[in-house]
Automatic annotation (TrEMBL):
Pfam families linked: DSPc
Keywords, alphabetical: Hydrolase, Protein phosphatase
InterPro entries recorded: Dual-sp_phosphatase_cat-dom (IPR000340), DUSP12 (IPR016278), Prot-tyrosine_phosphatase-like (IPR029021), Tyr_Pase_dom (IPR000387), TYR_PHOSPHATASE_DUAL_dom (IPR020422)
The EC number(s) this enzyme carries: 3.1.3.48
Active site location: C79 (phosphocysteine intermediate)
Residue stretches making up the Tyrosine-protein phosphatase domain: 1-136
Protein name: protein-tyrosine-phosphatase
The Tyrosine specific protein phosphatases domain, residue ranges: 56-115
């Protein structure tokens, strides 16, 4: 059951419905509510604002409600109006308890009992992230949760017109990153076109879907990636935007740009924050092999085509899966 705070003042209501446990999701001093002494009471101090972190409480409240129900109790979850905070906590419990539910279907279930249920946009985003993570028991240890927290730090810094004080370099986290999805057994990396220094592999690339509103001829001219440790010196300057240069000190070629406020790719997609490598300044190399180890490397189709057009005969390891056919055509 999830209602507004006013229900606590209704004499006999809790007894009538057999309530044994109460979850209060609001900032309030309950010293005048002596009746609460008769119930198991859990209070979560939270405001009904988009950037309030309720996600960190989902496991605590979910486990607490689950234990109460398994002990034969009945739980009242309330906030001020019974519309946003308490509904969010209830949906999180449902997602945790019933894996087949989606955020939308869980909200619809709640609305059957509480038609006014409507979590704010920030809470809805947190519920979707919770579901995406698989409703884990160790929320705070999840890489996706940690990146979400870091994004809040970045957003707060940008709102103040500044770059964040601390940069999260993904290659130093020893955690999985949501890189681009590629065919199993095939990975790629980007190298500086001038000196061939490896800059990033598939793990740290940020995928983005081209805008359907732009002509198909508007191809992407950027590779976007997560911040990596070789950018440390550049980003430590505290600027909101600037150039990215090859980390090879003997090269120093300009290879892209960064913008904490975000930038728009030529395909129309806005990426924020943006760390971009220009496609014309890097070579894209396909690393082909089994999951457990790379066995060969081949240039991209674009590079192969250009080399072939120039009459350059490729070494066996760079001819790709159709090398015999290419051999005949050279």
């Amino acid at each position: 059951m999830h209602l507004g705070m006013f229900v606590l003042r209704r004499k006999g209501f809790l007894e009538k419905h057999g309530i044994t446990h109460i979850v209060s999701v609001l900032i309030y001093d309950f010293k005048d509510y002596r009746e609460l002494e008769n119930y198991k009471h859990l209070q979560i101090n939270a405001l009904d604002v988009d950037d309030e972190n309720l996600l960190a409480e989902f496991e605590k409240t979910g486990k607490w409600v689950e234990d109460a129900l398994e002990a034969g109790g009945k739980v009242l979850v309330h906030c001020a109006m019974g519309k946003s905070r308490s509904v969010t906590i209830t949906i999180a419990f449902l997602l945790r308890k019933y894996p087949d539910l989606t955020v939308t279907s869980a909200l619809e279930l709640v609305k059957q009992a509480r038609p006014m249920a409507e979590p704010n946009d920030g809470f809805m985003a947190q519920l979707k992230l919770y579901k995406l993570m698989g409703c884990p028991r160790n929320i705070k240890e999840q890489p996706k949760y940690q990146r979400w927290l870091y994004k809040i730090v970045v957003d707060e810094a940008l709102a103040a017109g500044m770059a964040p004080d601390k940069v999260r370099f993904e290659d130093e986290q020893n955690q999985e990153v949501d890189g681009e999805n590629h065919t199993v057994g095939v990975k790629r990396e980007l190298r500086c076109k001038r000196c061939r220094r490896t800059l990033v592999n598939s793990t740290y690339l940020v995928s983005h879907d081209p805008s359907s509103t732009l002509p198909s001829s508007s191809a992407c001219t950027h590779h976007f990636l997560h911040p990596l440790s070789w950018m440390r010196l550049t980003l430590s300057q505290g600027l909101l935007a600037g150039r990215l240069e090859c980390p090879n000190t003997k090269c120093d070629a300009q290879i892209g740009r960064y913008a904490w406020q975000g930038m728009q790719c030529s395909c129309g997609v806005w990426v924020c924050p943006a760390f971009s490598l220009q496609k014309g300044r890097v070579d894209e190399i396909i690393l082909s092999g089994k999951e457990e180890g790379v066995t060969a490397c081949a240039a991209t189709d674009e590079v192969l085509s250009k080399m072939k057009g120039l009459g350059i005969r490729l070494p066996p390891g760079m001819r790709g899966p159709n090398r015999e056919k290419e051999k005949e055509n050279l």
